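Worked example 3. Consider a protein that binds zinc ion.
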Amino acid sequence: MKTLLISLIIFISVSAFAQENFKYIVNSEKKQFMDNMRLNKIEYPGDSSIDVTYYKLNLTITYVPNYLRGIVTVNAKSSTQSLTNFFLDLVDSLSVDSVSLNGKLLKFTHKNDKLNITLDKPYNSGDSFSVKVYYQGVPVSGGFGSFVFGSHAGQPAIWSLSEPYGASDWWPCKDTPADKADSSDVWITCDSSLTAVSNGTLEDVVNNGNGTKTYMWKNSYPIAQYLISVAIADYVQYTTYFHYAASDSMPVENFIYPETFSSVKDYLDKTTTMLEVFTQKYGPYPFLREKYGQVQFGWGGGMEHQTITSLGAFGEDIQAHELAHQWYGDKITCKDWQDIWLNEGFATYSEAVYFEATEGENTYRSMIQQDMQAAKNASGSVYVQNISSVNSIFNYKRTYAKGAVVLYMLRGIVGDSAFFDIMRTYAADPKVAYGVATTADFEADAEKVYGQSLKYFFDEWIYGENYPHYNVSWNYSPAGGGNYNINLNVSQTPNTNPVFFTMPIKINISTSVGDTTVTVFNNLQSQQFIITVKGNPNDLTFDPDNQILKGISITDTIDPTKPKTFYLEQNYPNPFNPVTKIKYTIPVVRNGFVPVKLVVYDLLGREIATLVNARQPSGTYEVSFPLNSSSLNSGVYFYSLSAGSYFAAKKMILLK
Ligand SMILES: [Zn+2]
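Given these inputs, the predicted complex is written out as structure tokens:
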């Protein structure tokens, strides 16, 4: 899942929550009830006495009036001896007419959002049964809009978005991602003028002869309850093909509002390239027998419903994000919401992986830079502590940005080749593929490929909080034979948890005879390293490739009057119109000159202007942007400075 205009969307959802809270205060009885429901859901993630094997949703949905009638079939196995009753999750606002097994009516009660069903006889562990639940009502939308009767251009649009707790807002299920069904069917009967879209392949469309049609969608892969979706509108259908082998292809099916189609077609056409990139990096697309699809809905973001992503915004970043979820999120689903970074961190990092493959290193680095900036402001551990709050689970800085930075840092430690080997090994691991995973499962695969323990890394970056602040000082002394001993002192400002971070750290030392890069393993709060180099040391760079999310202050023995570090300043004024100034600093370096490139990009990562592309000596520089009076549109732009091994990017806003 991803919201496109992060700050805007968060603002809206916060105010929506405030309104909800206000309603609760006005109606304290309801508040009490909602709190209980929420607690029940969290503390009791579905009935553990059953193992669901199959869901069929047979839904009749009308727009006038807004109404849902459903027959949901649940096949399950008992996971206990002598099971005589069990429960499904379903909100009380929908009313259950009957529950049956082999045509025989079963006793049930429906309260506190649980549908308690009494079976016809005791079922022992492993015994299967199949129940049908007949229910109806007007779904009340919760979470991010679990079931919405909306509109577009004055026409009906109906959609679901169940993640995380909203599936039971519109159908009876075991509302936890921990128990996937082996397969599912979704049949939707709706007005003939509309098209109903869901997971898997469309087996048939039946014209009922009464102004309605029934769309029969079949999914033959394991699926989590929250990835089952419906989307209904007067869609334009546009199909392309992903040729994944010389003689095999898979359809990419797009369902788009008629008024939107022409403006997003170019983005839809990039989907096959995205499939190629992720196939190469992560292994085969997980649902090749069926399809990949993108369906438009009215929520301002995207949601990775299995084989059919729902999109309310279009663009390479959001589409790459949702597609990557098909591997990490859908094929492998986080077992619980505490581990949501296994979905969202992976999909967010995949955006950068996609742009690295299609646009190269600079775009990749500038995206990571933005993730790092957000990750530094993350509070609490990536492992979500409070899963009773939807906003806490989907906290952008922590779950998305810091989750992505964790993968970026892992790649820095193990190297490119081992990193993508880890990603593919995890995606194919029979223990989790088409199943569910926790952080420990990913950690085990990472360690298997890397061949060493990574416990320190996951402990501090997933279960710990914040990031290291390094205080670095160094000096050197001659060691004879033209060699010098660098005396490097690294101490960390104490953090809460962990108190300090254990990390391998690259150190680049430039001397009169060349550059040397070594890796030190920093596993003490305060630690000294002696590094012997050839030639008189000129400069030392701590973590030269910026592989660690960190704060740093460095003191060295180089001439104190000269700038010691590269620095890219925030442009001024900002926002600007028509012109702004960008300042940066180049420190003293060994051979006197540094190759410097200062480039401006738009939101899509397209290069707008190259402001500097030259070799420059130490000093502070100021450049104006735009260089000429320009026809640039209002909006967000990025500028990045690459200088030697330094890279930094910042955001600026043109307001006309
Ligand atoms: Zn996502």
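Take a moment to read the result before moving on. Confidence is low (pLDDT under 50) at residues 6-44. Residues 1-2, 321, 325, 344, 347 surround zinc ion (CB under 6 Å).
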